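Appendix B. One record, verbatim.
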Amino acid sequence: MGKPQKAPKPKYVDDGRTLADMSGVGGPKFHRAKNAPRSTGKEKWDTYWAAVRMMFVPMLCVITGILIIYMILYAVFMFL
């Protein structure tokens, strides 16, 4: 096996501008197009409930685990 090939180094070209030169920055402002559809309240509500339903079982598992650990620690330190 030979030596691994090194990646070629990038070549930087100095165009004479300073880092503070912001003359090339600009262009159109970022805003929504006038004909872009907006989400309705019902769509937002449906998305919210979909996320809540997706997280319900994991939330119950975590709460149950915390309660079990609390009961074990409570029982251990109660009898010391």
